[in-house]
Protein 1
Amino acid sequence: RFLEQFKPECHFFNGTERVRFLDRYFYNQEEYVRFDSDVGEYRPVTELGRPEAEYFNSLKDFMEETRAAVDTYCRHNYGVAESFTVQRR
């Protein structure tokens, strides 16, 4: 039995002044490829991730969407959740 997971993460610094988006892929609890918005492309974490990184990076529309995730996913969701978290302090 094998398990594959992906985990999108948003890291916020000083509210939304600085945002970092990570899109991490795991196979059997081992990360094998990752997108880091600070880098701007997918990078292999293990040799298993090399073909996946090359494939993802070759998809122009997919990469545009992934690079935009800092705004479309992270900042958007920060705004939605802000009223439930940050403002309740």
Note: The chain has a mean pLDDT of 92.
Protein 2
Amino acid sequence: MFSFNVARKEPVSAAKAEKPKGNYKRSVHSYNIPNVTLLNQDGKKVNLRSLIDSGKPVIVDFIYTTCNTICPVLSASFANLRKELGKDAEQVQLISISIDPEHDRPEQMKKYLSRFSAGKGWDFLTGSREDIRRVLQALDATVEDKMAHEPIYLLRAPDSEEWVRTKGLMRKTDLLGELRSMDR
């Protein structure tokens, strides 16, 4: 069984100052997730709030299928995390949200995920331009130019209102370390 450290070291606040941690910055936030229905890589309608509130730890990133710079690095980190978790991988919900909804269709998203041996528990979501805009805005991940987006992960423990936001490149062990340090 996958376990988490439940000790609280700091009080909860809406947004804590960013703290450098290795090659990335870490901060804690509260987000109001919009009630939107998106499409996953299988063309299945998925309610974002329901997926996030699935009772599992959640990690979100923001990518697009035609990216050949930072997106494959982010996706490789998800793949490495799943490999490190082994049989516990399905106890963590990974969500990749498209920042290019005009071009990212389920067929392309499924093909993209196959490059990283994605399996159950890793959903790649797209939707209407307006729904994706609402999601990106709510998660403070809006980008003017998709080619210049930053490497961001958002992590949330089950039933928590707190999100850990990381910005910057992470070593192979950093994402697993952040996951294991989350409160339950």
Note: The mean pLDDT is 88.
